[in-house]
Amino acid sequence: xxxxxxxxxxxxxxxxxxxxxxxxxxxxxxxxxxxxxxxxxxxxxxxxxxxxxxxxxxxxxxxxxxxxxxxxxxxxxxxxxxxxxxxxxxxxxxxxxxxxxxxxxxxxxxxxxxxxxxxxxxxxxxxxxxxxxxxxxxxxxxxxxxxxxxxxxxxxxxxxxxxxxxxxxxxxxxxxxxxxxxxxxxxxxxxxxxxxxxx
Length: 199
Known about the structure:
The protein is of the alpha/beta class.
C-alpha cells in the first residue's frame, strides 16, 4: 500500500521558460563567453548541487571570464526567477494530502537557487519533507538518495511512489524497491498513481 509520494522539482512540479539556463543566457547575451559558461556547468556545477562547493564563491571567481554585462546578483536573479509551478501538479499534491498520503520533494539543486525557489513558492508548507541535494549531500541518481528518504519517512521502499523526469533517477529508486515512475506527462503519471492507490 502506498503511503507516500515523492516528487521531483525541475521538470515535474516546476518548469523553466527554456529547458536549459545556458540556452537562454547565450541567446539573450550573445557576447557571453560560451566556452567558459559551459566549463562551469561541466566541471563545477555538480559539486555545487551536492553541497561540496558554494556556487556564489565559484561564480564570483568565474564571472569575469563569462563577459556577462551585470553583477553576480543580477545574473543569479536572471537565472533563478524564470519559470513557474505547474498548477495541475500542485492540485494533485493537495488532493493526495487530503487522502493523508505523505508528499515529499526530492531535488538536485544548489543551495542559493533552492533557497530562492523554496521561499518564493512556500514549498516548506506544501511538502511534508524536502530532500535537496545541497542539504543532504546526496545527489540523484545515487541510490543512497532513496535509502535516505525511506529512513527519514520510516517507510518500506515499496510504500513510496516516486516520479522523476530523469530516467536514471527513476531506475535508481526502483533498484532499492520503490514504486518508480519516469515522468513524461501528467496523464501517464496520474494513471500509474491511481492504479497503485486502488491496490
